[in-house]
Amino acid sequence: MAFLEIREVHKRFGPLAVLRGVDMSVNEHQVVCLIGPSGCGKSTLLRCINGLEPIQGGEIKLEGDRVSGPGVDVNRLRREVGIVFQSFNLFPHMSVIENVTLSPMKVLGFGRGEARDRAMALLSRIGLEAKANEYPDRLSGGQQQRVAIVRALAMEPKLMLLDEITSALDPELVSEVLNIVRDLASQGMTMLLATHEMGFAREVASKVCFLYDGVVHEEGPPDKIFGSPDEERTRAFLKRIIEAGRL
Amino acid sequence: MTDIATKGRVGTLPTLPRRTDGLSLAALLFAGFCVLCAWGATRTIAGALDHLQIARDAAWSTFFFLVVAATAALFLPAFRSWSFSRRAREALSQNNIVEARIDAAAAREWSYITFGWGAAALVLLAFASFIMANNAGVGRTFFYLPLIAEKWDLVVLAFWNNIKIFVIAEILVLIWGLVVAIARLMPGPAGQPVRLLAIAYCDVFRGLPAVLTLYLVGFGLPLSGLPDLIIPPIVGLFVNFDGMTAAQIKQYTRIPLTWYCILALTLTYGAYVAEVYRAGIESIHPSQWAASRSLGLSYLQTLRYVIVPQAVRRIMAPLLNDFIGLQKDTALVQVIGVVDGFNQSRIIASNAFNLSAVTIVAILFVLITIPQARFVDRLVERDQARMRAAS
Ligand SMILES: Nc1ncnc2c1ncn2[C@@H]1O[C@H](COP(=O)(O)OP(=O)(O)OP(=O)(O)O)[C@@H](O)[C@H]1O
Ligand SMILES: [Mg+2]
């Protein structure tokens, strides 16, 4: 049984059907990359998994438990599933350390001292312990995104959802963020990431899913998808990416 | 080569500076006019002093001289403007266009300085003349110093009531407004009735004139007998009524009128402040909600730790506006017979046929808002500095 199972998920925004029966699964310790043209619903799918958007059909299961639909304790679900957004979304009125300790203290019930110790340990792992008392708008984009990742990790999630976490960054800041993801992958963190960084996807992914027209159009190991995809659409998409110089 | 160069020059020939002689002349005339006005104002004041039989000693003469001399200082920039205009003219006649343009700009600048300061001086002179006109009729009506000296303590004492009312009301408004705002933003179908109630409350109490609410609450509630029903049992928990006469019990259980004022003002301004809070909360980007909820924080925790703290920082200034409004509306509490600064000063005014006591309370109302405005400025500044500065 897969760690995360997505079955026939439908999602509509009013008349706009964004997801039309998405099927996919993520096994434990797998890194699954979600690729696809802009607007195909990658962010939407991740938000649905985290319970930030209700779905209109199908179901999502985490470790065999149904986590979509009515009656689900979304607050509990979110303790297990961390998400990092494209636009960081740090809390601007809190220092870095406060950002990282807020939910461990309020949700997991850690004491201040313990939460701080754990946060400092995480921050020093990404080399930002010196910035612990800084406020977010004094940090570079790359530093902010690294803090956002640490903030999600502080909840010790079993699954991390990463939504194009480098696409708002200047090119020279991308690698510092990707290095963290690489680290996480090597430590066996289960991750589902939407990305436009095809080179990176090829490197870390256990599986790549090409989302198109509201469904998973093609999936397979990275070498297959990037090397010799079966589907015409996938080839066309990758050709455009190569033309844009991103692979 | 030279041909092209000349052609190029023709195309970019510097434009001739506009003549500034007229402007400089106008500045000179304006300065002269201001001095005349200053002289006229000193005559008005002197006339009023004579009428009031105040001896015009050397101090007054010096004062008058200083007023006229200060106004005459306007001739300095005016003359400077004039001389720059002349230099610009000379430079132009020598075909030195760049020099002419610089001088013309200086001439213009100095004439504007003359106009700016002259206008300010005229306003001040007009105000002084207004107060001293009709043999200081205005001055005596509003600023009669002997009366002010005699009665200011009474007025200040009564104004203390205003302060008490608005300080307590503001604290309550701060809490109540937030409660209403959150009720108004309750999500989901379960929140619907709460939302409707909150909207109805805001509509009613924002629409009602504050003076009406005061009247209805201050007279209506005691008349309804409701307080008599509720208060004695509560007070009874702490005070033993046994063997007391009804009048004695009444002493313990009567709610002072001041509290009705506080209630009425809280109801009125709670509606305003709820809207301010709501605007602040809604101005926080939805991604902050998503980030907070995705970390497992509940709806209320998200409000408490993420949304409201950011919202409050944004609404400081409009909040202060509403608070100043509330403070000014404490002048209405006299409609239900509470003695406040305004009421007290009116009593004094009608006894003395002179409004100087009202001036005191007017000054008090203004004075009390100034430190608050500076305080909020400081608060906002400090907060921004904290968010920006390194630790
Ligand atoms: N809250 C919303 N309301 C209405 N429509 C929405 C909403 N969120 C997303 N959409 C629409 O859903 C579609 C998918 O959006 P989504 O953000 O999931 O795309 P994406 O694959 O993440 O694109 P990108 O690569 O540009 O991030 C888009 O057409 C978008 O306009
Ligand atoms: Mg997206």
Structural summary, described in words:
- The complex is a heterodimer of chains A (247) and B (391).
- Chain A has 247 residues and is an alpha/beta fold.
- In chain A, 38% of the residues lie in helices and 24% in strands.
- Chain A has nine helices and ten strands.
- Chain A has a six-stranded mixed beta sheet with strand order 6-7-8-3-9-10, with helices on both faces.
- In chain A, α3 packs across α4.
- Chain B is an all-alpha fold and 391 residues long.
- Chain B contains 15 helices and no strands.
- In chain B, α6 packs across α15.
- Chain B is flat, with a radius of gyration of 33 Å.
- The site of adenosine-5'-triphosphate has 12 residues of chain A, from β2 and α1.
Keywords:
heterodimer; A: 247 residues; alpha/beta; 6-stranded mixed beta sheet; 4-stranded antiparallel beta sheet; 38% helix; 24% strand; globular; B: 391 residues; mainly alpha; MetI-like fold; 2 domains; 15 helices; 82% helix; 0% strand; flat; disordered N terminus; binds adenosine-5'-triphosphate; binds magnesium ion
Oligomeric assembly: heterodimer
Cα distance spanning the termini of chain B: 63 Å
Largest sheet of chain B: none
Strand line-up in the sheet with most strands of chain A:
6-7-8-3-9-10
Query: What is the helix/strand order of chain B?
Result: HHHHHHHHHHHHHHH
Structural class of chain A: alpha/beta
Largest β-sheet summary of chain A? 6 strands, mixed
CATH topology of the largest domain in chain B: MetI-like fold
Provide the succession of SSEs of chain A. EEEHEEHEHHHEHEHEEHH
In total, the number of domains of chain B comes to 2
Biggest interface reads:
A-B, 30 and 23 residues
Low-confidence stretches of chain A: none
Helix content range of chain A = 25-40%
Total helical elements of chain B: 15
Query: What is the tally of beta strands of chain A?
Result: 10
Based on the structure given, which CATH architecture of the largest domain in chain B is correct?
A: Orthogonal Bundle
Would you tell me the overall average pLDDT of chain B?
A: 88
CATH superfamily of the largest domain in chain B: MetI-like
